[in-house]
Amino acid sequence: MLAMSRNDLLLFLGFTIAVLAMPIWLQPFGAAYPDLLQRFMIFGIFAVGFNILFGLTGYLSFGHAAFFGVGSYAAVWSFKLLSLDAIPAMIFAVVVSGLFALAIGFVSLRRSGIYFSILTLAFAQMSYNLAYSVLTPITNGETGLQLTLGDPRHFDRLFGEAMPGQPVPTLLGQSLGGFTGFYFCAGFLILAFFIAQRITGSPFGMMLKGIKSNQTRMNYTGFNTKPYTLAAFVISGMYAGLAGALLAVTDPLAGAERMQWTASGEVVLMTILGGAGTLVGPVIGAWLIKYFENIFSAINETILARFWDFLPDGADHFAVVVSSKFVGEGWFLTLGLVFVLIVVFLPGGIMEGVRRIAHLFDRKRSSPTNPGKTAPHPQPAE
Amino acid sequence: MFEVIFLQFLNGLDKGAAYALIALGLTLVFGTLGVVNFAHGALFMLGAFCAVLFRQLLTLETVTIDPTKLSPWGQPLEVRAPLVQAWFGDFGAVLVNYSVPASIIITIPIMLLLGILLERGIIKHFYKRPHAEQILVTFGLAIVAQEVIKSFFGPNPIPQPMPTDLRGAADIGAFLGMQANVITYPIWRLIYFLFSAAIIGGVFAFLQFTTFGMVVRAGMADRETVGLLGINIDRRFTIMFGLAAVVAGLAGVMYTPLLPPNYHIGMDFLVLSFVVVVVGGMGSLPGAVAAGFLLGILQSFASMTQVKALIPGIDQIIIYLVAVVILLVLPRGLFGRRGVMEA
Amino acid sequence: MPTPNVVLHVADVHKRFGGLHALADIDLQVEEGQTHAIIGPNGAGKSTLLNVIIGKLAPSSGQVIFDGAILTGRKPYQINQLGIARVFQTPEIFADLSVLHNVMIPALAKRDGAFKLNMLRSLDSEVGIRQEAEHMLEDVGMHSSRDMHAGSLSRGDKRRMELAMCLIQHPRLLLLDEPTAGMSRHDTNTTIELLKKIKSRGMTKVIIEHDMHVVFSLADKISVLAQGRIIADGTPDQVRGNPKVQEAYLGGTH
Lengths: 382, 343, 254
Prior knowledge:
The complex is a heterotrimer. Chain A is built from 18 helices and four strands. By secondary structure, chain A is mainly α. Chain A has a domain at 6-260: Orthogonal Bundle (ABC transporter involved in vitamin B12 uptake, BtuC), CATH 1.10.3470. In chain A, a hairpin with a 2-residue loop joins strand 2 and strand 3 (174-175). In chain A, helix 3 (34-57) runs parallel beside helix 9 (178-200). Chain B is mainly α. Chain B has a single domain, classed as ABC transporter involved in vitamin B12 uptake, BtuC (Orthogonal Bundle). Chain B has helices at 2-33, 40-58, 83-88, 90-97, 99-102, 104-121, 131-153, 172-175, 187-209, 211-221, 223-228, 233-255, 265-280, 285-302, 305-310, 314-329, and strands at 61-70, 76-82, 169-171, 184-186. Chain B has a two-stranded antiparallel sheet. A two-stranded antiparallel ribbon of chain B has the order 3-4. Chain B is globular, with a radius of gyration of 22 Å. By secondary structure, chain C is of the alpha/beta class. Chain C folds into two domains: 1-83 and 173-186 and 203-254, P-loop containing nucleotide triphosphate hydrolases (Rossmann fold, 3-Layer(aba) Sandwich), CATH 3.40.50.300; 96-170, no CATH class. Helix content of chain C is 35%, strand content 25%. Chain C has a six-stranded mixed sheet, with helices on both faces. A four-stranded antiparallel sheet of chain C has the order 2-1-4-5, with helices on one face. Chains in contact: A-B, A-C. Chain A binds chain B through residues 58, 60, 107, 110-115, 117-119, 121-123, 125-126, 129-130, 132-135, 261-262, 265, 268, 272, 325, 329-330, 332-333, 335-337, 339-340, 343-344, 347, 378-382, and chain B through 36, 122, 125, 127-133, 135-137, 139-144, 147-148, 150-151, 155, 267, 271, 274-275, 278, 282, 312-313, 316-317, 320-321, 323-324, 327-328, 331, 341-343.
């Protein structure tokens, strides 16, 4: 039952190796430090999960950050009330965000198209606004929910006194800082990828693709599409919750801004940038965005001045001024521009670009008598 | 009690008017071009920054150092002379005072040009693409617009003073023959409401009574047929997009004294305006206007202390809550047509 | 002689849209194994009738009974699960998927029902379904293009694939809505050949059509619809000779 085709197995192994070896191969890019690597893993999971909904069924949710945030809050509450161990926190977070997604999905999926997007957006904004106001006892409002020495931690107390010092999440008593934290998150990303791969290759996954392709036909073929989309919605909500929980594990502070719609927009960007509907694309999108966010926002005018130093006087100053608009605080401008270019010229994202290039080489190699299939054209509207 | 309710009703009007104006533009674009424009909020924001820009230009100063006098700190005194006043004298001072309404004269051409460029440059390539891609590309454009503004004007809100004569409140209660000083309403909000009403009326009249508007309305109903009649619908649609941009821009300009604009004000309004459009019914102009005022007024009522005491947090979520309920009960919103955007 | 088994019974159906009486007094009985054609000029109410049969429109009065079950008020997927498959006027297919997958999906619907959360099984392990789909494609002569993108097929091939998608479910009733609309002469002929081939298997079919050539070469029984009413009913020969039909239809625009 768990047999995989050779291609799937190769993809999975390749992905696993690439992830585990990240501390090595990212060294030359200056990205091999635990904090950033953890983020790569966490947002990779978020994007993979978002893609299960958007990439497979075509339902564009603009409210997925709500599940991410709920996952974070749930994990921190587990740390506070139950135990500092990460495992119960993860389980608790995934269950809670799954239930939350079930409720929101059940209502939102009664509509499709833009109406669905707006409903998810409305629910996420409601969650965000409530987290800031009425739900302050649960969310601790603007300060954010954090661990304190006085937390009850009932499980931990059963097994002895709390350790002295600032409480931090652990795994079986081991601290999850640094590279341990990275490998912990990496394990979950690999698991998340594996499950996504199984889903995509299953009959269920094909039904989801069928729903994206032609919902009318699905209905007249005898499928009740609603439970399919709802299942996809809940699964992707659980992925978001898992990612949110991991963020709380690596940094036990949960704030409402994680639920804001800009955060929902970010995961959309990641998925589209990498390639919606592909397995690897969303992960790559997440990595690229987080990587460049990190690099670009660190660049300041001094660095730019050194970079443009070779230009003649005046021109270099001009270059510094212009380019400084795109880095540092202006990183989002670059992101927005790249995103617009991607949507205009490469709607399939980076993965489509890769495919096109591969196709180009293919055609060069094969004889010209074989016209080959033309690359699937970006879908016509009707 | 009546006074309280009436006051809340009034308080909802200006916000409702802003929602209605943005939603109107969104609907124009959606109804004519069939494009879901997530950059529309950015147009509102750009309009607001036209006012900021205009004021900054007006208050450009020449700084001369008068060596004969010393400032209290013992340095040569800097004499700042606003250029406009230097050139135009008293008229210049009036201009500075009325910078917000006066900036309309630059807002209209700027927004029109921006709208046309946007439509010709990018939007028109997305007519036949799926709505999801339209959302994505305009979302990207919105990010670009707000980041450009941020890099030039900084991240902080820039207050725009309203003209000195228009500060203070009007005693509407007395005007309506009620007791004096019970129902007072800030003048500028009143102006904003009347201004919005005028624009909304203008747009409707334009669509109703001009040949241009007739063709556009026919195009909203059935684009292909009008195309077959040999009418150059594309160019008209370009102009419609420009018009929608102008409406959004004007809504932004006049709102600046009520809420100091910052670079993400557009996004804040966009989310709400989309909710408004959907509640009104995609593609329905009266729906957009009605829903805009409805939600603005509901929001005003929800922020009454009595209501908040009854249902904590209701003021934070009322709009979304209404949207959810309306969408579930009336799938196409208040005035939506069948078959629009349901794929 | 045993009474023929009626599979589909449209009983006294009326449909009004506001003041318009789109369907009046429709009574149709489709017998097991027969090919029943519904013809009529444009605007006669053919599409309305079809939409009433498949439950998309609720009749103003009357009922549609399929095999003892009332169809009115059921969702399209429930109607399909009862054993009714439908071919659309413009082929409704999964344009983004391969031809083989297009045919596998309905087979899975037949086997697994309206919903099954089978996300841990691999599609590759569905050998039975796959073979069934390949056989079906061979049957309609499309096996060689099984790996093609369905969206890139010619219109005639899309229609053939759509038929395969319906046939693989072994429906008790197949509804065909103008199966040759917008097709070239060549595609029309291959489609007719294919439909004749299916006919020999004894599947019940209802065809909505205005192309007389198609109707008379396929139908066992014809009902003629004009202005929302059935004006004639019978074998092709009876209908051909009916003066009312010639007036309303054959003598009209065609």
